[in-house]
Design a protein that fits this description.
GO terms for molecular function: cytokine activity; frizzled binding. This is Protein Wnt. It is found in: Secreted, Extracellular space, Extracellular matrix. The chain is an alpha/beta fold. It has two domains: 226 residues, no CATH class; 60 residues, Endo-n-acetylneuraminidase fold (2-Layer Sandwich), CATH 3.30.2460. 34% of the residues lie in helices and 17% in strands. It contains ten helices and eleven strands. The strands form four sheets. Strands 3-5-6-4 form a four-stranded mixed sheet, with no helix packed on it. A three-stranded antiparallel sheet has the order 9-11-10. A two-stranded antiparallel ribbon has the order 1-2. Helix 7 runs antiparallel to helix 8. The longest helix is centred in the middle third of the chain and has 23 residues. Bound molecules: 2-acetamido-2-deoxy-beta-D-glucopyranose (3 copies).
C-alpha cells in the first residue's frame, strides 16, 4: 500500500518540497497557540486533519497519525505539557538545572519550530528522565480532564470506576455524623454507590501509550538503542504517577448529614503533588542503566544487575553534566546570573549554585504583599511593603 502513503504525502505537503531536517520534540507543542492548534469543533476537521497535523513539525510520524485520527486531543496534550513545564520549573527553581533552556527556533514554511528543552529531552540523563516523566504525567492528566469535562468526543467519565486502583480521601463534601465510619480499611463494609464523574485515567494512559510508546517500540526494533527503552520506562513512571494516586471522594446524603447514602467518584491527585512526588523519585530513585540491552533494561552497577528495575524508579543512561557553564551544544544555560542564597546549605547556596566561581552582591528595593488580613467575607487584603534586600547573583 505504499502508493497510499505517497499520495498522502503529496497531498499533505502541497507547497513545501523541502522542510529542514528537524529533531522530533513533542514538547514543542507547548508553544502552539490556539489558532494554530487543530482543535475547534466548528471547523470541518475530518477532511483537513491529516494535512494540518502534518504541520505540527515537532511530532514524529506516529504522533502525526494519532493527531490525524484524533485532532481535538492535541490541544489537551499541549496543555498537559505546559502544566508539566510550569511545575518542572517550580520544582527545580533552586537547582543548577532549572528546567529552562535557550531553545533553538527554526523557521519553516509551516511556521516556527521551537525545540523546547529538546536537548535535555533527548539526552537520556537524569534530568531528561524527570522531564519525560513529568511531561507524560501532564499529558495523561490533561487528556483525562478533557474526557471528564466532556470536551473530547472519544472519551467521557469512567463508567467502571471500580476497576481502577484508588485510595480514599479523608475530606468529605459534607461532614458525616460519625466520622469513624470512613476510616480506611472499612471499605468492605461501607455502602456507597458510584455517581458523578470519575476521572477516566485508563483512557488517558492508553492515549499516552499510543502517543509516546509506539514510536519508541518501533525505533528500538530498528536500532536496538537502549535510549528507547529508557524513554519508555520513564513514560511508564509518568503515567503511573497519576494512576497510582487516584482517590475516591464521596458526598453524603441523608437526613441532615447522616450519611445514610453516599455517592463516590474517583479523582486524580493535584498536579503539584504529582510534580513533588516525581521530584522525590528524581532525588532518590533514579537508576543508571547499562547501554547494552537485549530485551530489557538492566542496572549499570555490577553488583545490582540481578535486581529488577522497579516501576517507581526513573531510568537514565548518561551521567549528568555539571550544568555550571553555558554550553549551547548541550542546551545548557549555565548558572551565571542566577540568584543564590548566602550559606543556605541547600541547592540554592551561593557556593553550590555558582560552582565556586563566586557571586556579586547588590542591594535591591523589592515590594511584597504583607500584613495580609482576612476580610469578612471572603477576601484577603494585603499591604504592599517595600524592603531593601541584599541580592546575590552568580558570576
Ligand atoms: C469545554 O467546552 C466548553 C464549551 O463546550 C467550554 O466552556 C469549557 O471551557 C471547555 N472546558 C475545557 C476544560 O476546555
Ligand atoms: C559542550 O559540551 C560538549 C560535549 O560535552 C563539549 O565537547 C564542548 O567542548 C562543550 N562546549 C563548550 C563551549 O564548553
Ligand atoms: C533559569 O536560569 C537561567 C539562567 O541560568 C535564567 O535565565 C532563567 O530565567 C531561569 N529559568 C527560570 C524558570 O527561572
Amino acid at each position: 500500500m505504499w502508493w497510499l502513503a505517497v499520495i498522502g504525502f503529496i497531498s499533505a505537503h502541497p507547497s513545501s518540497p523541502s522542510l529542514p531536517k528537524l529533531p522530533h520534540n513533542w514538547l514543542s507543542l507547548a508553544a502552539l497557540t490556539p489558532t494554530e492548534a487543530p482543535p475547534s469543533r466548528e471547523l470541518d476537521w475530518s477532511t483537513h486533519s491529516s494535512k494540518l497535523c502534518s504541520r505540527l513539525i515537532g511530532l514524529n510520524p506516529v504522533q502525526k497519525d494519532v493527531c490525524a485520527e484524533n485532532p481535538l486531543v492535541i490541544q489537551y496534550v499541549a496543555r498537559g505539557i505546559r502544566e508539566a513545564l510550569y511545575h518542572c520549573q517550580d520544582q527545580f527553581k533552586n537547582e543548577r538545572w532549572n528546567c529552562s533552556d535557550r531553545h533553538e527556533v527554526t523557521d519553516t514554511s509551516y511556521g516556527t519550530f521551537k525545540d523546547i528543552l529538546g536537548k535535555t529531552l533527548r539526552s537520556a540523563t537524569r534530568e531528561g528522565a524527570f522531564l519525560t516523566a513529568i511531561s507524560t504525567a501532564g499529558l495523561v492528566y490533561e487528556v483525562t480532564k478533557g474526557c471528564s469535562t466532556g470536551n473530547l468526543s472519544e472519551c467521557g467519565c469512567d463508567t467502571k470506576p471500580d476497576t481502577q486502583r484508588y485510595t480514599d480521601t479523608i475530606e468529605m463534601q459534607q461532614e458525616p455524623r460519625n466520622p469513624t465510619h470512613h476510616r480506611l480499611g472499612q471499605r468492605s463494609i461501607e455502602h456507597f454507590s458510584w455517581g458523578g464523574c470519575s476521572d477516566n485515567v485508563p483512557y488517558g494512559k492508553k492515549f499516552a501509550r499510543r502517543f509516546l510508546d509506539d514510536w519508541e517500540t518501533r525505533e528500538f526494533e530498528k536500532d536496538g538503542d537502549a535510549k528507547h527503552l529508557v524513554h519508555k520506562h520513564n513514560f511508564f513512571v509518568g503515567r503511573e504517577q497519576i494512576a497510582q494516586n487516584i482517590r475516591r471522594t464521596c458526598r453524603c446524603h441523608g437526613v441532615s448529614g447522616s450519611c445514610e447514602f453516599k455517592t463516590c467518584w474517583l479523582t486524580m491527585p493535584k498536579f503539584s503533588e504529582v510534580a513533588e512526588m516525581l521530584k522525590k523519585r528524581y532525588d532518590n530513585f533514579a537508576v543508571q542503566v547499562a547501554k547494552k540491552v537485549r530485551k530489557r533494561l538492566r542496572r549499570k552497577e555490577r553488583g545490582q544487575r540481578q535486581l529488577e528495575i522497579r516501576g517507581n524508579e526513573l531510568t537514565y543512561l548518561l551521567r549528568s553534566p555539571s550544568y555550571c557553564e553555558r554550553n549551547d551544544t548541550l542546551g545548557i544555560l549555565g548558572t551565571s546570573g542566577r540568584e543564590c542564597v548566602h550559606r543556605s546549605h541547600n541547592s540554592d547556596d551561593c557556593d553550590l549554585l555558582c560552582c565556586g566561581r563566586g557571586y556579586n552582591t547588590r542591594m535591591e528595593r523589592r515590594t511584597t504583599q504583607c500584613q495580609c488580613k482576612f476580610v469578612w467575607c471572603c477576601q484577603v487584603k494585603c499591604k504592599e511593603c517595600i524592603h531593601d534586600v541584599t541580592v546575590h547573583t552568580c558570576k
